# Entry
Amino acid sequence: MNVTKNMQWWVLWGVVAGSVPGCGGKPPATPVPPEQERVVLRVPLYSWIPDAAGDKFQALSARIEAEFEAEHPEVDLDVNPSCFKDDLYEPSELARSLRGEGECPYDVVEVDTSLLGELVGTGAVRPWSALPEGPRWHSAGVSASTFEGKLYGVPHWQCSHYIISRDEAVSRAHTVDELVQALAALNTPAMDLSANLLGSWNLPSLYLDAWADTNGPDHVQSAVTTEHYDTDVLAGMKKLASACATAEGNPCIDGTYDAEANLDVPDVLLAEGRADATLGFSERLHGILKKLPSAESRAALRISPAPLGLGNQPLLFTDSFFLGERCTGACEQAAQAFVAYMTRTSTYQWIVLGEDAPAEGRVPRYLMPANLDVYELPGVKADPFYPVIRAATATGAPFPNAGLLNIRKSMRDAILGALQ
# Structure
């Protein structure tokens, strides 16, 4: 970071002002403004996005800092500070650092809103005064960022469950039964479905999405419980899991794909034609396209909202920016300017299209912007997959933003027991 940038600007200003003749050649009546200390703004970004350049987001962070500081030279922006080690899904760790008590204090953090209730409960974040002006926000993102009537988050990214395949009948399935039947009808030597259905966040999230598909999204918060489970939802999920079964076992639910070293295996299997479909967020397309044997084979891929229950009503996860309770005054002004920069269409454009990566072999990130105007950008509109993603989630409902953190492991164990 060029910490002398603002100092040099003020020195130059002083030289010019001092050389302008006053009345009778006297020096200016107003003294030269003193050098100003830049406002330091530290912001860890949500890290579970495709690393398009393969450089651990160094080019991404550098471009964000350079563009923002060019517009706001009074701010020293530190994106993804090197000292950051907090678990983005542990509110207690985030709260300590937002209060300035940890080894790596920061002012704004980008977090999954499924933790919003618990993060607010720590007292370490406070509401934003308003959303940045300009973006046309997805209503689910705003709803997910609001708790007890107060706006605690500025929406940035959204996610939803999709089926990625090469078959039109699979992509047209509207229920989990239709999906399983369409996959079986392919009758190929490949696995019907290859996907990680485990994880203490992942499996409960799939259940809640399936619950909304079956019962509608209006009362999905009531499904965040260990007291009872919807038997129709569990029956459908069991059928889905059975599509992963092989002669050797079921890698979707036996922990094979949940191992860190194997997280990308389902993508590889689909890319190589050894699986007929995979299940995951839209950004999985980024890795799949990079793994395809040839660019020409991209046109065969299909992406569609995952029908996990008796219908198909997508739930949308949202990653939002949260303001630390100690970030006030000049810090808050810098934070407001930062989230405005991050959520405007021009910033979204180069991030979603992966333009921090070298041009050769560049692949879009296929992240879902919370700013709906991004879908109107020429480069996004011309992409073969983004218009489908936009249409699929236009009426998506917000994922619950409280209650899951402390019961997710119990939910995982109970749901897994029903699938085995």
Summary: The chain has two domains: 39-159+316-382, 161-313+399-419. The domain at 39-159+316-382 is CATH 3.40.190.10 (D-Maltodextrin-Binding Protein; domain 2). The CA atoms of residues 212 and 371 lie 24 Å apart. The two ends are 53 Å apart (CA to CA).
